[in-house]
Design brief:
By secondary structure, the chain is an alpha+beta fold. The protein has one domain. About 25% of the residues lie in helices and about 25% in strands. The chain has one helix and two strands; from the N terminus they run E-H-E. The chain has a two-stranded parallel ribbon. Strand 1, helix 1 and strand 2 form a beta-alpha-beta unit. It starts with 12 loop residues before the first strand and ends with a strand.
Length: about 45
């Protein structure tokens, strides 16, 4: 569905964060802000 363009995942991703900020910018945000659906973690720049 994603590769065919049926499901637009860009609307689901709320944020993109670097791996070294996963706790501060990722997990804490998910715990505090219940509107967050998905946060992508960037492994490489």
């Amino acid at each position: 569905m994603i590769s065919n363009g049926v499901l637009d995942v860009k609307q689901i991703v709320n944020d993109r964060i670097p791996l070294d900020r996963i706790i501060e910018d990722g997990l804490e945000k998910l715990l505090v802000d219940k509107t967050q659906a998905k946060i992508l973690v960037k492994i490489h720049d």
